[in-house]
């Protein structure tokens, strides 16, 4: 078994945060990404050869020497499940024995949020792989709530009065690092959420307080949601993901609050208010300063 921890997506929002936490703990790492120039320079970290999830041989080389791996889900794509399967199989071929996978809250074969179905299929492949595994099913990111808000100060979508237990990237990374460094997590599935489940209307009220302007939530029907997003000329699968993300809020599939962050990371998760205090740039576009 290799002694290093492989971190995929090490140039991204979650992988990069986890890599920095592991570096602070003095752990040997292999940082994996498609573009080595974007990987962080960290103590005890080796930058693996460039690798994309869909390239099995490149991923096998990137995983070599690692006994444990953090598998951050790939960017949304029509063939994302195939990419994940290729990466998992490459990890097996390289001798990796344990994978911690960043999944999604409510992952299921019939999940309302279409991208959550990708996570379920990936989980099933990991279960069948023979690897030790842990699934971290995070809710939507807190960063998504201000990002959902247009420059006109309106959040639009078919979320109804449903609630979302949105979580900060930092809290997900804290949990992931603790699981990677700890024991007793094999076979576990952890829901990773913020401390509260809020409606988009409540999110709009909080954003109003921080931006100094009126932010509102405008409920759309499914038809209106598809029509309002048609101007982006995105592929059908991508638009479906955008629309169903709101519908998953409406159904309550992302509204369950867990204690995972406090139990495993050892601190309380950030609320939306705390996130906005720490990240004023996240709502700058609403104030007209972005």
UniProtKB/TrEMBL annotation:
Domain NAD(P)-binding residue range list: 9-180
Pfam (any one): NAD_binding_10
Protein's name in the database: NAD(P)-binding domain-containing protein
Organism: Kutzneria albida DSM 43870
Lineage: Bacteria, Bacillati, Actinomycetota, Actinomycetes, Pseudonocardiales
């Amino acid at each position: 078994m290799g002694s290093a921890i492989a971190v995929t997506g090490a140039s991204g929002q979650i992988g990069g945060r986890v890599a920095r936490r592991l570096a602070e703990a003095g752990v040997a790492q292999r940082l994996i990404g498609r573009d080595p120039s974007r990987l962080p320079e960290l103590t005890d970290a080796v930058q693996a050869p460039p690798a994309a999830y869909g390239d099995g041989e490149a991923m096998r080389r990137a995983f070599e020497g690692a006994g444990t791996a953090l598998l951050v889900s790939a960017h949304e794509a029509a063939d994302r499940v195939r990419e994940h399967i290729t990466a998992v199989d490459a990890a097996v071929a390289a001798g990796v024995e344990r994978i911690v996978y960043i999944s999604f809250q409510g992952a299921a074969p019939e999940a309302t949020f279409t991208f959550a179905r990708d996570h379920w299929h990936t989980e099933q492949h990991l279960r069948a792989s023979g690897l030790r595994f842990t699934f971290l099913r995070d809710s939507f990111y807190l960063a998504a709530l201000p990002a959902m808000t247009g420059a006109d100060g309106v959040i639009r979508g078919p979320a109804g009065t449903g609630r979302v237990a949105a979580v900060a990237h930092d809290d997900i990374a804290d949990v992931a690092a603790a699981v990677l460094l700890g024991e007793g997590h094999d076979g576990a599935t952890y829901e990773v959420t913020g401390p509260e489940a809020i409606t988009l209307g409540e999110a709009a009220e909080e954003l109003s307080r921080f931006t100094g302007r009126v932010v509102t939530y405008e409920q759309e029907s499914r038809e209106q949601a598809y029509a309002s997003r048609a101007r982006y000329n995105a592929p059908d699968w991508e638009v479906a993901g955008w629309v169903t993300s709101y519908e998953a809020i409406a159904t309550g599939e992302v509204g369950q609050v867990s204690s995972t962050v406090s139990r495993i990371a050892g601190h309380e998760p950030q609320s939306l208010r705390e996130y906005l205090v720490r990240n004023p740039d996240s709502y700058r576009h609403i104030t007209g300063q972005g």
